[in-house]
Amino acid sequence: MVINIQIKMIKILNLYAGIGGNRKLWDGDIEVTAVEINSEIAKIYQDFFPNDKVIVGDAHQYLLEHFREFDFIWSSPPCPTHSIINTSYYNREGMQRYPDMTLYQEIILLKYWFKGKYVVENVKSYYEPLIKPQESGNHYFWCNFIISKLDRIIRKIDYDDIDMKQRERDTYLDKYDYSKEFKDRVLNNMVFPQLGLHIFNCAFREKQETLF
């Protein structure tokens, strides 16, 4: 007797998607919607992942309006107003700015209202985080599942040379007619692909304790 087992397609929302570093190694029965506000970066993402639905727009607002439609949500909100490095720079220049609290708005929304698995990723902040994250190197992760062996995940190393950055990330921008500065910024903002895969596996493929 043949038993047909239907595997549910995992609907994924990839917010502040960039060129898709976190998504690069995901596979299987997945349907990905990516939201990126920069149209040029969104074009590169679509080129890399032609089967994904790519939306050019405000990821924060899209999350609020559509979070119930997905099984897994990854969000990587902008980090400059939280970062130790960037804050130090602005302090030296005599400038101050508020931390962007949309980060915590998203964490709270997902924690209390979202029924699927989620992860919100950001850099280590110059202040004590208002909601305790899981931590690896200079990154924070807020999620409702355990990311195993987080301290041993391969993390990106920043080089000054763009070719080395591309090889390390296995992501190549040579064919795109953008400035060196643009390519460098895009590569620096990438989530390391093996990190994205490990977290995805922890959410769906590894037996682990959830944190509801």
Relevant terms:
single chain; 212 residues; alpha/beta; Rossmann fold; seven-stranded mixed β-sheet; 7 helices; globular; disordered N terminus; disordered C terminus
Molecular structure report:
The protein has 212 residues and is of the alpha/beta class. The chain has one domain: Vaccinia Virus protein VP39 (Rossmann fold, 3-Layer(aba) Sandwich), CATH 3.40.50.150. The chain has seven helices and seven strands. A seven-stranded mixed β-sheet has the order 3-2-1-4-5-7-6. A hairpin with a 2-residue loop joins strand 6 and strand 7. The chain is globular.
Order of helices and strands: EEHEHEHHEEEHHH
Number of domains: 1
Rg for CA atoms: 18 Å
Question: CATH topology, which one?
Answer: Rossmann fold
Distance between the termini: 39 Å
**Largest sheet strand order:** 3-2-1-4-5-7-6
The whole-number mean of residue pLDDT values reads: 87
Assess the beta-strand content as a share of residues. Answer: 15-25%
Q: What assembly state would you assign to the polypeptide chains in this entry?
A: single chain
CATH class: Alpha Beta
Characterize the main sheet: 7 strands, mixed
